[in-house]
């Protein structure tokens, strides 16, 4: 069996990649968190404890958990990978030749688990234990960053997403997240687990400017049966959708992509913050956003890569037809309008399905979790008082690498 295959959102989850938040959170402050696309400053220790409970909950369900920092450290053991990442991050053009050389000399001597921690979590000028003759060091405040922290790496769903027999290594929309993608490019190319793996790279494998063709995994739902559902949010563009769809069809891995237009605002940053798949005929939805008048298109194609695009009358009908089920059961966010808005903000709809009808979600979303329970959905609840302040739930924080189809 190919261990690099994701055939659905609801089949048995077998292998997942998570990132335990540590160093990046220590660098978050009220004055810089918004520039780093994080809504709040989290308690580092508590967030780590909550993440540990999330990972253990998955392990208890028989899911293999891979940790991003460990994968990156092991990738840095490969000299070619280390040189590639070092040249990208510490270039003469970014820092000037003398300072770049000084930084590289310092970083090259670090144990790889420390180097991985800095690549993911950042390095401030005050943390550099060497003095450089470069003008740059003298001109920066101690709290300025040489390497910016990447707190959003917590949301491993976005940076790469696996669809059927391959992966999209996603060009991210915001400058604060673009560097995340290179870590996944390096891991999937050089890490021993992936370097000889039998999988396709559909899109985003090159370190080039993808311009307007951005896509993030939180918008991508592998419906199963050769169909993919993609939300066009503030982070995922029609250009990104068309490029990914064309590659899926060229490689014979999908027969249809359904694309839905979403409002371009923060509260529904990705499709999975307002709609997730829980059982073959059951979705969780936030009805204030997932409305009947959402524009929707169906993309089909063949191995030539040519796309046929047609507008659909109603997205639910398109999904029912694709899954050959109906009518769909939609579980809406719980509580009155105020409670539902709060719970959606706290990721009540952003659950990770472990197997059909069993999901992981935050325990704080009591009204919505009660509705799931009444609908026969088992919620494996995890604490999220700190993690949830990053504006992402269990689905956002997980990148399935191996999952059964339906």
UniProtKB/TrEMBL annotation:
**Has UniProt tagged this entry with the keyword Cell cycle?**
no
Does Hydrolase count among this protein's keywords? yes
Please name the GO terms of the biological process aspect recorded for this protein, alphabetically.
L-arginine deiminase pathway
A GO-annotated cellular component: cytoplasm
GO MF term set: arginine deiminase activity
Q: Name one Pfam family in it.
A: ADI
What EC number(s) has UniProt assigned to this enzyme? 3.5.3.6
Its annotated pathway reads: Amino-acid degradation; L-arginine degradation via ADI pathway; carbamoyl phosphate from L-arginine: step 1/2
Give me the reactions it catalyses: L-arginine + H2O = L-citrulline + NH4(+)
Q: Which UniProt keywords apply?
A: Arginine metabolism, Cytoplasm, Hydrolase
The record's annotation in InterPro entries points to: Arg_deiminase (IPR003876)
The record's active-site residues are: 396
Location(s) in or outside the cell? Cytoplasm
Q: Which family does it belong to?
A: Belongs to the arginine deiminase family.
Can you name this protein?
Arginine deiminase
The encoding gene is arcA
């Amino acid at each position: 069996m190919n261990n690099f295959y994701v055939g659905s959102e609801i089949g048995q989850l077998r292998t997942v990649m998570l990132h335990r938040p540590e160093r990046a959170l220590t660098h978050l402050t009220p004055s810089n968190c918004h520039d780093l696309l994080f809504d709040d400053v989290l308690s580092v220790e508590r967030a780590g404890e909550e993440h540990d409970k999330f990972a253990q909950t998955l392990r208890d369900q028989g899911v293999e958990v891979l940790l991003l920092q460990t994968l990156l450290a092991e990738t840095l053991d490969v000299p070619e990978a280390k040189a590639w990442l070092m040249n990208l991050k510490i270039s003469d053009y970014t820092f000037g030749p003398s300072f770049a050389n000084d930084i590289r000399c310092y970083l090259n001597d670090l144990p790889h688990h420390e180097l991985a921690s800095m690549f993911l979590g950042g390095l401030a000028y005050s943390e550099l234990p060497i003095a450089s003759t470069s003008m740059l060091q003298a001109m920066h405040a101690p709290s300025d960053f040489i390497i910016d922290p990447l707190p959003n790496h917590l949301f491993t769903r976005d940076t790469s997403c696996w669809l059927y027999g391959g992966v999209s290594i996603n060009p991210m929309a915001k400058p604060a997240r673009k560097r995340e993608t290179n870590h996944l490019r390096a891991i999937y190319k050089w890490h021993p687990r992936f370097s000889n793996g039998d999988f396709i790279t559909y899109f985003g494998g090159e370190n080039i400017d993808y311009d307007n063709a951005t896509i993030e995994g939180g918008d991508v739902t592998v419906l199963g049966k050769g169909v993919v559902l993609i939300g066009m949010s503030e982070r995922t563009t029609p250009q990104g959708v068309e490029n990914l769809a064309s590659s899926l069809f060229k490689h014979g891995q999908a027969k249809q992509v359904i694309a839905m237009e979403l409002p371009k605002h923060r509260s529904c940053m990705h499709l999975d913050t307002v709609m997730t798949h829980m059982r073959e005929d059951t979705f969780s939805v936030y009805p204030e956003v997932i409305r009947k008048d959402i524009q929707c298109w169906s993309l089909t194609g063949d191995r030539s890569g040519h796309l046929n695009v047609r507008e659909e009358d109603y997205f639910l009908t398109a999904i029912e037809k694709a899954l050959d089920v109906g009518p769909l059961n939609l579980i809406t966010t719980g509580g009155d309008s105020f409670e539902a808005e709060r719970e959606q903000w706290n990721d009540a709809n952003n659950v990770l399905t472990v197997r059909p009808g069993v999901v992981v979600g935050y325990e704080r979303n009591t009204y919505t979790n009660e509705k799931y329970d009444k609908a026969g959905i088992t919620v494996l609840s995890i604490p999220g008082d700190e993690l949830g302040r990053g504006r992402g739930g269990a689905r956002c924080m997980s990148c399935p690498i191996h999952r059964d189809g339906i």
